[in-house]
C-alpha cells in the first residue's frame, strides 16, 4: 500500500494544505521524488511528448504507460502513483476496465481519464470494480485535434458552468481526484470549492488544492515551447534535488503559481 492514501489527500484539502504532484516516468526520478516527499506521482501520457518525441499524446499506448508505471513503482514502492489511460483506451466502460486492470497490475494506485459527462458510466464501472479514478477537465490534450490547439478553457460563463457540473457529476460517479488544466484562476478556485475531492491544477491558478507539473518542464528541459504556467525551478536552485525541493516548498507555501504562471 502507498504511504499516502486518498483519505490523506482529502485530509490535506480539508486542512488547506497544498498537494504536491509531479509526473514521473522512471525509477531514478521516482526514487528522488519519493525521498523528497512529493505527494503524488503521475505516469502521464505526456511521456509521448517528453520521452518519445511525438507532438501530441495521441500515439501513446496502454503498454507504454504500463511499462513506465512498473519502472516508477520499482523506484518508489510506497508512493501514490496515478497512471494515465491513453487515447482511445477507455471509449467504453468495458474497454476502460480491461485497460485499467493492466495499469493497476503494473503498480498504479489510481488511473486518470480525460473528459466530462460522457465518462460518468465509465467512472462508475471502474470504481465499483475497485479501480480508483482521477478525472481530468479543462484542456484535454488527447482531444487536441478536436479542440484545434492547446488553448485556455472555461473562459466564458457557459463553458465554466459546464465544467463545474461535469466535475460534480464525475465525483457523483465515483471519481476521487480531479486534475484541471489551463483554466482561469477564478474557475480553478470555483471547481475546488464545488467538489469534495481534491482538485490538482496545472495552469489553473493558485487556489486549487494542489499543483502538478511535467517534470521535464519544471527542470527547464523543454526548450522549444514553454507554456505560460511552467516555471523552471532548476534555474535558481542549481541542482535537480534543489529544484524539486523548491517546487515542493513553493507549492506548499502558495508562492507557486504566481499570477505570471496563471490565466484570467
Ligand atoms: O500527462 C500528463 O503529464 C498530465 C499532466 C499534465 C496533468 O496529464
Ligand atoms: Na496526461
UniProtKB/TrEMBL annotation:
Give the annotated active site.
Answer: 181
* Residues reported in the UniProt entry to bind Mg(2+): 45, 84, 114
Q: What keywords appear on the UniProt entry?
A: Cytoplasm, Magnesium, Metal-binding, Methyltransferase, Pantothenate biosynthesis, Transferase
Q: Which organism is it from?
A: Aliidiomarina soli
At the top of the EC hierarchy, this enzyme's class is transferase
Pfam families the record matches: Pantoate_transf
Q: In which pathway does it act?
A: Cofactor biosynthesis; (R)-pantothenate biosynthesis; (R)-pantoate from 3-methyl-2-oxobutanoate: step 1/2
Quote the subunit structure annotation.
Homodecamer; pentamer of dimers.
Instruction: Name the chain's protein.
Output: 3-methyl-2-oxobutanoate hydroxymethyltransferase
Free-text function comment from the UniProt entry:
Catalyzes the reversible reaction in which hydroxymethyl group from 5,10-methylenetetrahydrofolate is transferred onto alpha-ketoisovalerate to form ketopantoate.
Q: Does the keyword Cytoplasm apply?
A: yes
Amino acid at each position: 500500500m502507498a504511504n499516502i492514501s486518498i483519505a490523506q489527500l482529502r485530509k490535506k484539502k480539508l486542512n488547506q494544505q497544498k498537494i504536491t504532484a509531479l509526473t514521473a516516468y522512471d525509477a531514478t526520478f521516482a526514487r528522488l521524488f519519493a525521498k523528497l516527499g512529493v505527494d503524488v506521482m503521475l505516469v502521464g501520457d505526456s511521456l509521448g511528448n517528453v520521452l518519445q518525441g511525438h507532438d501530441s499524446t495521441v500515439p501513446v499506448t496502454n503498454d507504454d504507460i504500463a511499462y513506465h508505471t512498473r519502472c516508477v513503482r520499482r523506484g518508489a514502492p510506497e508512493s501514490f502513483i496515478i497512471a494515465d489511460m491513453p487515447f482511445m483506451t477507455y471509449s467504453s466502460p468495458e474497454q476502460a476496465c480491461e485497460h485499467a486492470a493492466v495499469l493497476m497490475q503494473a503498480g498504479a494506485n489510481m488511473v486518470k481519464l480525460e473528459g466530462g459527462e460522457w465518462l460518468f458510466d465509465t467512472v462508475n464501472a471502474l470504481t465499483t470494480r475497485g479501480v480508483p479514478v482521477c478525472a481530468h477537465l479543462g484542456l484535454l490534450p488527447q482531444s487536441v485535434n478536436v479542440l484545434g490547439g492547446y488553448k485556455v478553457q472555461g473562459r466564458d460563463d457557459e463553458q465554466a458552468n459546464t465544467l463545474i457540473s461535469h466535475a460534480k457529476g464525475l465525483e457523483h460517479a465515483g471519481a476521487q481526484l480531479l486534475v484541471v488544466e489551463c483554466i482561469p484562476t477564478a474557475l480553478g478556485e470555483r471547481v475546488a470549492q464545488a467538489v469534495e475531492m481534491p482538485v490538482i491544477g496545472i495552469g489553473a491558478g493558485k487556489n486549487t488544492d494542489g499543483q502538478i507539473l511535467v517534470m521535464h518542464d519544471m527542470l527547464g528541459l523543454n526548450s522549444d515551447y514553454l507554456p505560460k504556467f511552467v516555471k523552471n525551478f532548476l534555474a535558481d536552485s542549481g541542482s535537480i534535488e534543489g529544484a524539486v525541493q523548491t517546487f515542493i516548498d513553493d507549492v506548499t507555501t502558495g508562492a507557486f503559481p504566481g499570477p505570471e504562471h496563471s490565466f484570467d
